[in-house]
Amino acid sequence: MGMILGTILLLTAVVTANVVHLVYPKIPLSIYQIIAGILLASLPTEATNFTMHPELFMMVIIAPLMFNDGQNQSFRYLSSNYKSILSMTVALALVTVLITGGFLHAALPKTFPLALAFMLAAIVTPTDAVAVKSITTNMKVPENVNGALEYESLFNDASGIVLLDLALETYKSGQFSLGHGIWIFVYVFFGGIIFGAILGSLLISLRISLMRKHVDIGSIVIPINVMTPIVIYWLAEEFHFSGILAVVAAGVIHSILYDRMRLTSTKVQMATTTIWTIISDALNGLVFVLLGVLLPQVLGRTSWQNLGTIVALAFVIYLITTVLRFLWVRFKLVNIHSSNITRDSLLMALGGIHGTITLALAFSLPVLINNRQFNFRNSMILIAAIVILISIAVGAIGYPLLLPPKAKSYSKTEFQKELVKTVQYAINELRSSKKYSPEKALVIDQLSSQMTQYHEFNRNVYTQLMHKAQQVELATLDRLNEEDKISNREAKILVGFVTRSAFRMNKHGFLEFWVILWHRIKWRFMRQRLLNKRRHDHDNPPAHFQLTEGQRTHLASILTIINRDIDKFLHSVETPQNANEVAMVRRSYFQRKRMFSHEVSLDTDLATSLFIEAFQLEHSYVQMQLSDNQFSQELANALNEQISTDELVFAQSLD
């Protein structure tokens, strides 16, 4: 129960941090999550006393995150920029470990033997692109810098892991062979890539085989996709390859599959993307919450005398790694295709934010080495944690000073306004293109619901429209009765609906009140005359009548005529300003008609074709407005994306 409660508390902390960030997004999400973890650790419960299991942490949390990052990358970009990627992820990682470790050993030779210094340097080498994104969400990051940071964090994690393992083995044995070290690095690094690529290709072949047999369904494909990183990481580690690089390579291979299947398996791709987005956000949040939870534990095992030294070391290590990153880019040891090399060098330096892998590597340090207590473990974990906090804080301060805010060419209000116009255009075209039908009424009602979610409801406007619609309805009933198309009994039933609905409303004009009252008195008088006639024809008065199926069908046909007149009236008074209220009135009449005609079956094929036609009309409207320069390409893309999402939702509802 303690583990279950602890997991629930962790997830609650993640959700709480996300909510707070949504309300006040100026502070990076990762900082909110760390604070949530610290507060969680202060709760008076043993459920928050988590024990970090590095191997399980890497396999269950880090591997899925890296696999998902690989799935979202472009193989074309990787293949065309492999030199730059190797420069940042291998060469820079090696130089960073050698210089940082060498400085620590030279400055504190008794505290940091060379192998131990390299271990600490390897821990703080990996970067975290997710942490960078949490800071730069609302900023305009240059594409070349953003791409370089993403691909660096994708592969330099493995470099840090391999270098840490080499330093740890050297520290255990007290010996180091350069040739053996190079061979181990090549075997683990490139072996992981090749192994992951092979397994990824086999899984893709399995998926294609299933597709050819028409079994490309979510219940099979999605579980395989979610399980892939865990299985590949475990198998790669069993063969002593880099499990992280193996899952990254498998993810990149999967990205090739998605590039080739943009227009196939739409529902499965949509579901897969949604699931991985949820998994990725949750796991990233868990990492930073765990950092906040474990930070008080580590601080509690550190004396106040050593805390000042540890903080100073963390600042020095961060400064060295940041300067190295700046110089590496400034002197063009990596080509990031920069037009402003000084600015981009500074952005790349600040982008060396540490996070998930650094935390995982720190906690992966063994408690015992050669059957002796590893006394430096707690201090190294605390140094790594402080480096993470410093890198996040400096990035949160520095990036807003260097980058302009991300500004869209349209506002949220403008998007909502144009979406309403787009839907209204489709409704008007459908209304004018074909005769009235129940299927068209259903489609128009569903389309109208798209508009209501973007408008604030104006009750006064709605009440006025409803009063006028009721007057149109009463006039239609009078006309139908005069034309002998409706009996007194049917008219009485429908007038009862109208008048009861009208009197329930709070506000009535003087004329509206007397019109409604006149119709109520009129049809009550006609009802009494009808009852007197029946008493004369029959000795006993009639009991309370119930509608037969035939009468119900006839009433549904009458309501069709009434709804058509109401629809014409609403169409004549509809404007972009009252579109929401018009849709509400139209829906109330549509729902009333469905109450009488629920037994009447609809032509689903006709309704489907009308929905498809409506979506095509919406896309056409966007294209026409774009051609006429009525709004920007960015706004057109956002509208088309929204329409396409509605199409996918509708397609899923057909099953």
TrEMBL record:
Residues 12-397 form the Cation/H+ exchanger transmembrane domain. GO terms for cellular component: plasma membrane. Signal peptide: none annotated. Keywords: Cell membrane, Ion transport, Membrane, Sodium, Sodium transport, Transmembrane, Transmembrane helix, Transport. It comes from the Bacteria. The chain crosses the membrane at residues 27-43, 87-107, 114-132, 182-205, 217-235, 241-258, 270-295, 307-327, 347-369, 381-402. InterPro entries: Cation/H_exchanger_CPA1 (IPR018422), Cation/H_exchanger_TM (IPR006153). Its main location: membrane. It is found in: Cell membrane. This is Sodium:proton antiporter. It comes from Limosilactobacillus rudii.
